[in-house]
Each structure stands twice: as structure tokens, then as C-alpha cells.
Amino acid sequence: MNWKLKDILMVAVVGVIFALVFYGANYLGTALTAVLTPFGYGPLGYQLIYGLWFMAATFATYIIQKKGVGIVAEMLAAVVETVLGGMFGPMTLVNGFIQGFGCEFGFMITGYKFFNLFTLVLSSITCAVISFIPETFFYGYLAYGGQMMLIMLICRIISSIIFTGIIVKIICDGLAKAGVLKGYALGMKQKMKEAK
Amino acid sequence: MRLSTLDRINPFVKSIVILVCCIMMAITQSWQVNVAVFLVWFAAMLVFSKCKIKSLILTLVPVVFLALIVFVSGLFAGNAGVDSDSLYTVGNLESALVLGTRILSYVIFGLLFAFTTDSKEFIMSLMHQAKVKPKFAYGVLAAVNLVPTLQREWAEVNLAYQARRKSTGIIPFGPMFNTLVNGIRWSENVAMAMESKGFDGEGERTYSIETRVGAKDYIYAIVSVVIMAVIIVVFH
Fold it and tell me: Would an 8 Å CB–CB cutoff place A118 in contact with chain B?
């Protein structure tokens, strides 16, 4: 799609706000890991909130409703996170691309025809699954063994459905109602609904 | 101000080299490699950049804490020893070490980048070397410069809640939403302001900062990858 400056800035500013949320989420993830470790489920700590990191992609796609928005939005958010001094540096860009592609995939298989709760949830599932694969190598998840990896994946999918699917929909619909999305596809649909 | 050797490497080249090193590291599953990588790049940062050992160690404290937790959680949940009588086995210890030290070695690359790279220069080099369109580059730059404004907004919204004696809850959804609303409003205004000043994200333009790739960048890239290869061959 042809990006307008206003779209880029909207996604980047939302990326900045998310990056500030990630800052706190990193500590939350560490705390969860610490709490769960005595029960033998330490590896699930981060997976339970992993959906937070995919939010930029579905957020932008649901608002702008065009092809390729997911990948670019997640990459923009990754650049923002890198620039703001994220812990993992440029590796964030690779993760951003993979996660963006994962989210995009959910909308792609429905042919970019529907932008609703169903496609948001579908996209959050594809994102959780696709981004899990390279991470098994990057972070050495293989060492946890098959059973634990399966539990990790399930937790990741559930967290993704909650954050990347449901919460994103609630926030975006709220923003549309607040009237700040008039210049975007979602806001226009909202306006048409109100006119009827 | 005199720049250190690492500060002067082209940011785009620096990030690509880090990516290559990380991918090389991801192929191995050995804690010796991870530790060696951590030590070598830690030393490199002390020698070739201006960052102080004290600030480096202070930054690493939470990371080491995280690595320790991951190590312990790996001990209890690792690959081997699930059916063993003892709490953990040697196989389990090995895999837990891989998991814990992997975090350290990743973060040292992240810190190397964060400590020695100017964010504006990084975005400029994305434009000059990675051929990212100016509208994306300057868009991100404008958004990043909104951080102080967003933080002030966040504080003001929280203050408004306090003044009305409204609780924000454990997770402050209300203030978050308000900040988001104003953030999106500003993003539209900033975009309009930029365009009204004649900003054209596509066409030819002049640049205040032009980043280039020179001999030192090639040397840096080759030396880094060779060191990484040597570490893998020796310790794997």
C-alpha cells in the first residue's frame, strides 16, 4: 500500500506508547518467571504476556485495513524500540519482521476481506505460532524439551488471543468512538454506522 | 567531543554485523560459546568505546538477575532429568546453562548497540544505506521526539485522576487510553505540520546528516564475524 505520512506517524506514535508499555512488561515478565519457577513452570512467565509484543501489528491493520500494514507497523515499532534503547538491540528488528509477518498471515489467508474479531483472533494465533519457530533457536527453547515447549506454545497462543486479538479490538473500537480515527478506515466505518 | 572507535562505525553496518553474529550464535547450543561471546564483547566495549565499567555493570544487574532466573527455571524444566530421582541431572544443568547464558550474550550485543549508537544517526543510516524512504525515517524520528511530550501527558492525566480522587487501578487503563487518544491526535497534527512546511517523503532532498560506509566499517564487519567464527570453532 501507499503509506501517507499521517499513517506512518500514527503507527510510530502508537509504537512509542507501546514501547513504553514494553518497558514495564519486561519487568512483569521477569517477575512472573520468578514466581512460576518454584512450580517448575518458569519458562511460561514471558509466554503469558507475549501477546503484548504483537499488538502494534494488529492494532495498525485493524485501523488502516490495508495489505502489508502489519509487517510495516511491527517493523516501525521495532525500530522505535531499538532507538529507545531496547535490551535486545537490532535483534528486535528481526523479531519485528517475523511477528509482523505472522500477524499479516492471518489477514492474508482471509484475503484481506474481513477486519473483525474473527480475523483479529486468527491473526493473533498465526502470529504466536509463526514467531515461536525461530525463537526456539534464538533463545534456545529446544533445551526445555518437547512437552514444556508445547505448554509454552499453548500459553503463548492464549496470551496472543487475549492481548493481540480481543484487547486490541476493544482499544481500537474505543478510539473510534472517541472520534480520533476519522481519517482512517475504522473511523469511517464507525461514522457510517452512526449515520444509519 | 571525541568519538570512540565503536561510536564511529556506521550504525546500519553495526546492526547488520550484530544480526549476523546473533544468527551464527543461534545455530550453536553451547553455553561455552555464549559465555565466550559475552566476555569478548564486554571487553571490546571497555576498550573500544567510552562507556564506563560502572555504568555497564549497573545496566547488566537486572539482566544477570533475569539470566539467573531463566537458569534456575531451566534446571527444573529442562530437557533431561524429567524422570530422574534427583532434582536435576548433568544433562539438565547443561541445558539450563545454555538458556541462562544465551540471554547474557544477546544482551551484550544489544548494549553494544545502545551504548555506542546515536539514535538520529541510526535512522539516517537506515535511510542512506538501507534505502528506507525519507517519510518513514523522518516519521519515526518525529514520533521518537514526542516521547517527552507523551511522558508529560501521562503525568498530567494521572494528576487529573488524583485531583478527582479517581482510582486508576493496578493497571492504569484509563490514563493509558487517554494518552493514546492524544498521541494519535498529535501524530495527525505533526504530520500536517511537516507537510505544510513542504516535507515531501518521496523526492530528492538534501540531508543534514549523511552517513557513509568506509574502510573502517568493512574492517569492523570482517573482524567481528571472524572472531565469532573462531569462538564457535574453538568452543563448540
Answer: no
Check whether residue B217 and residue B110 sit in a common domain.
Answer: yes
Residues B113 and B217 in one domain: yes
Q: What is the pLDDT of residues B97-127, one digit of tens each?
A: 888 898 899 899 989 998 888 889 999 999 9
For residue B124, tell me if it sits in a domain.
no
Residue A168, CB-side half-sphere exposure with 13 Å CA sphere: 33
Nearest to A175 among B147, B181, B186 (CB): B181
Least confident of A105-109, B79-83, B187-191: B79-83
- Collapsing DSSP to helix, strand or coil, A137 comes out as helix
Amino acid B1: pLDDT: 59
Inter-chain touch B135–A76, beta carbons under 8 Å: no
- On whether residue B163 sits in a domain, the answer given is yes
Most B CBs within 10 Å, among A69, A80, A83, to test the B interface: A83
pLDDT of B77: 65
Same domain (yes/no): B108, B157? no
Cβ atoms of A63 and A172 closer than 8 Å: yes
Give the whole-angstrom CA distance, residue A74 versus residue A95.
Answer: 9
Distance from CA of A57 to the nearest CA of B (A): 16
Q: What is the pTM of this model?
A: 0.87
pLDDT of res. B84: 46
> With contacts defined as CB-CB under 8 Å, which chain B residues touch A144?
74, 77-79, 95, 99
Domain count of the fold of chain B: 2
- Considering the domain architecture, whether residues B47 and B160 belong to the same structural domain is answered as no
Pick from B163, B187, B189, B190: nearest CA to B175: B163
Q: Decide if B5 is inside a domain.
A: no
Kindly list the residues from chain B whose CB atom is less than 8 angstroms away from the CB atom of residue A82.
15, 113, 122
For residues B129 and B13, the answer to whether their CB atoms sit within 8 Å is yes
State which residue of chain B sits closest to A136, comparing Cα positions: B26
